Amino acid sequence: GIQVEQSPPDLILQEGANSTLRCNFSDSVNNLQWFHQNPWGQLINLFYIPSGTKQNGRLSATTVATERYSLLYISSSQTTDSGVYFCAVVRRWMGGADGLTFGKGTHLIIQP
Amino acid sequence: GAGVSQSPRYKVAKRGQDVALRCDPISGHVSLFWYQQALGQGPEFLTYFQNEAQLDKSGLPSDRFFAERPEGSVSTLKIQRTQQEDSAVYLCASSLEEDRGTQYFGPGTRLLVL
């Protein structure tokens, strides 16, 4: 199956700092999503971004499908940004829908 | 509109008991997915429905796990003769489109098997 690697595994930053999270994947994809899992376990959709660039407030993401990676940028970090960030992909194939394959996540801690 | 809902939110079972976990997807969503998330890990795919048809059950860990979606909306994940290794969070997601598109996740059911 497709492999998804996220880096760094852990990141500790001061409030106000910027950060870049990376996701590498091993095959062509139909779907790539970034999620934030909050301390209560809820997976919150950040971006659906199989290719291109999107921005939403302090967050932005870029996927370079031909080079099989995606980046999530967080600017001016706030303590509420703390949690685990997951990248998840669906491999491209002709058989229809497929479940998401998740990376192991980046555990982000924003200190006040 | 309402998001994906799951019930119960927490379930404690004695080893050997059967459990049933319910998922209410977003209204009108064609695709429904079940995932299992062990502590400290990312979610792992279990099974996928398109309307009432179960098109992929390759991720179900054993024949003790069974899922259904008889009317193409609500889905139930059943685990028979629960074991301690079944302890995990079970997540349900739904998607509007059949073969691509954003998956929206419910809050999960946290299962503890004693």
Task: Itemize the secondary structure elements and their pairings.
The complex is a heterodimer of chains A (112) and B (114).
Chain A: E1 4-7, E2 10-14, E3 19-25, E4 29-37, E5 43-48, E6 52-56, E7 59-64, E8 69-74, E9 83-91, E10 101-102, E11 106-111
Parallel strand pairs in A: 2-11
Antiparallel strand pairs in A: 1-3, 3-8, 4-5, 4-9, 6-7, 7-8, 9-10, 9-11
Chain B: E1 5-7, E2 10-13, E3 19-24, E4 31-37, E5 44-50, E6 53-56, E7 65-68, E8 75-79, E9 88-95, E10 104-105, E11 109-113
Parallel strand pairs in B: 2-11
Antiparallel strand pairs in B: 1-3, 3-8, 4-5, 4-9, 5-6, 7-8, 9-10, 9-11
Structure overview:
The complex is a heterodimer of chains A (112) and B (114). Chain A has 112 residues and is an all-beta fold. Chain A has no helices and eleven strands. Chain A has strands at 4-7, 10-14, 19-25, 29-37, 43-48, 52-56, 59-64, 69-74, 83-91, 101-102, 106-111. In chain A, the strands form two sheets. In chain A, strands 2, 4, 5, 9, 10 and 11 form a six-stranded mixed beta sheet that branches. Chain A has a five-stranded antiparallel beta sheet with strand order 1-3-8-7-6, with no helix packed on it. Chain B is mainly beta. Chain B has strands spanning 5-7, 10-13, 19-24, 31-37, 44-50, 53-56, 65-68, 75-79, 88-95, 104-105, 109-113. In chain B, strands 2, 4, 5, 6, 9, 10 and 11 form a seven-stranded mixed beta sheet that branches. Chain B has a four-stranded antiparallel beta sheet with strand order 1-3-8-7, with no helix packed on it. The model of chain B has no long low-confidence stretch (mean pLDDT 93). At the A-B interface, β4, β5, β9 and β10 of A face β4, β5, β9 and β10 of B.
